[in-house]
Amino acid sequence: MGSTTLRTSLEAIALAWAEAGLPAETLQQIRLPGAEPALPSSFAVGTAAQAGIALAALAALQYWQLRSGCRQEVSVGMRDAAIECRSDHYFAIDGQPVEFHDPLTGLYRCGDGGWVRIHANFEHHREGALKLLSCAAARAEITAALDGHSAIGFEEQAAVAGLPVVALRSFAQWDTHPQGLAMAGLPLLSIARIGDGPACWTRAAAGGPSVAPGGGAAASPLLAGVRVLELTRILAGPVCGRTLAAYGADVMLVNSPRLPNIDAIADTSRGKLSTLIDLKDKTGCATMYRLLNSADVFLQGYRPDAIGGLGFGPEELAGRYPGLVYASLSAYGAQGPWRQRRGFDSLVQTAAGFNVAEAQAAGSATPKPLPTQILDHASGYLLAFGIGAALAKRATEGGSWHVQVSLAQTAHWLRSLGRVCGGFSIANPGRADVADLLETSDSGFGALTTVRHAAHFSRTPAAWRLPSMPIGAHPAAWRAI
After folding, report:
1. Which secondary structure element, helix H or strand E, spans residue 384, and what is its range?
2. What secondary structure letter does DSSP report for 40?
3. What are the phi and psi torsion angles at 312 (to 5°)?
4. pLDDT digit string, tens, across residues 101-151
5. In the CATH hierarchy, which fold is given to the domain comprising 106-168?
6. β-pairing, 165-167 with 106-109?
7. Confidence of residue 213 (pLDDT cuts 50, 70, 90)
8. Catalytic pick from 147, 250, 376, 433?
9. Which of 195, 202, 292, 389 could staple 400 via S-S, CB 3.0–4.6 A?
């Protein structure tokens, strides 16, 4: 795989839309201005950004149109979408940019000439890697220690220790790797019915009258009344929850008091309630079950089976809460030998061949990352698309649904979009270059400067109705509908 023919955003959207079984006529309501290159890359990162956000917007629009009987259009510009997918580069608190990448995170050459990428943004991951290498916290020390290791050998050692480390691979190497082979036969995302449930707009109002066409729903946000429990961290899952919140869903971010987070949470928490629940505690589980009584979506970003081991797997919750939409995000998918491995965007880029291919296209002697964490951002928008599609299906068919997205499947999709000729003819835009796309609002972190959402609706504008707040700022209770 690795098409050189550049696919348009509309073509990518139409394929995913058809696979989800949604009506083709809705696609007539999307406008997609702009063209590649949107960012300096040989890959269609602008197309991935535009198509991902457009799919999320269209799915929410489909749900709203079913509910209201009304119609509207939506526009997603490629430049706006690409910048939103670099939002972690532009957000600031009280005018100060936020840097959340640990200086030890990155690529290192090993003794056999290969490379490994070490993810050290969390203290326990950083300390684990240093302990494995028996070295001090300095890049020179790590490089010297890796001189005694092969890239694949150290990758395996780290995996046994539960650490996020991968060896650099080319596309050819990934395509013949057991995990690459497991990914090759999968769709972009999965939307599967996993149980019964009533046809309803929201579970909180299940059994009540639907809104009549042209009634109050026409002026309401796209996902008004939809309740989302978000158990995710880092970027992809939080981007999904932030998008659903922009479309009017009530999103409750649930963090564990046992786990750390990154400073980007200030950007990704816009529009959300934020609470702490410990699912390894009986009281915490009871609180979660209470919230699930009227929740529409259970969004989780832990490794496959990890959350299920605590009693919150998809089949169990679908049986207990008919009509629930369960959404799962993972690094490497639910199949293959790496299904339980920890992973992040930069690691999947490295393992799946992008850093080698991008370096070759740029004429670089060293591996080159993509200009944005596009796998994280696109996966978040694709997950929001899947959730919106599942909500629309539930409204018309009933049932409980399971939506699954992985960074590795998104990587496979990005390759299918083709390559951009002259992709390096532009530079990464700086903060001053995107000033027209930034907005500043009050938050629990201070004055928060962020990138505006790229989807523009003709009747019900996207908006974050709650300010971003620190972890645990709210009680574990839904707002009144």
Report:
1. helix 374-397
2. S
3. -125, 40
4. 788 999 999 999 999 999 988 888 999 999 999 999 999 999 999 999 999
5. formyl-coa transferase, domain 3 (3.30.1540)
6. unpaired
7. very low
8. 376
9. 195
Q: Is residue 405 within 8 Å of residue 328, measured between CB atoms?
A: yes
Residue indicated by tokens 């564990």 = 256
Residue 209 pLDDT grade (very low, low, confident, very high; cuts 50, 70, 90):
very low
Whose CA is closest to 9, among 71, 51, 38, 52? 51
Read off the pLDDT of each residue in 350-379 and give the average, rounded to a whole number: 97
How many CA atoms lie less than 13 Å away from 376 in the CB half-sphere?
A: 24
Residue 207 has pLDDT above 80, yes or no: no
> pLDDT by residue (tens digit) across 267-292?
999 999 999 999 999 999 999 999 99
The burial of 67, by beta-carbon neighbours within 10 Å (0-12 exposed, 13-18 middle, 19 or more buried), is given as: buried
CA distance 344 to 19: 26
**CB atoms closer than 10 angstroms to residue 430:** 10
Alpha helices in 35-122 (DSSP H): 45-68, 78-84, 87-90
Cα 230 to Cα 236, 238, 335, distances in angstroms: 12, 8, 23
Angle at 360 between CA 115 and CA 84, to 5 degrees: 90
What pTM value is reported for the model? 0.96
Q: What is the DSSP string of 310-369?
A: GT--HHHHHHHSTT-EEEEEESS-SSSTTTTS---HHHHHHHTTHHHHHHHHHT-SS---
The alpha carbon of residue 391 and the mean position of all alpha carbons in its chain are separated, in whole angstroms, by 18
Please list, in sequence order, all residues whose beta carbon lies within 8 angstroms of the beta carbon of residue 384, skipping any fewer than 6 positions away.
56, 59, 60, 239, 240, 243, 244
- 147 an active-site residue? no
Collect all residues with Cβ–Cβ distance below 8 Å to 130 and sequence separation of at least 6.
136, 137, 142
Q: Does domain 9-100+180-457 sit in CATH 3.40.50.10540? A: yes
Q: What ranges do the domains of the chain cover?
A: 9-100+180-457, 106-168
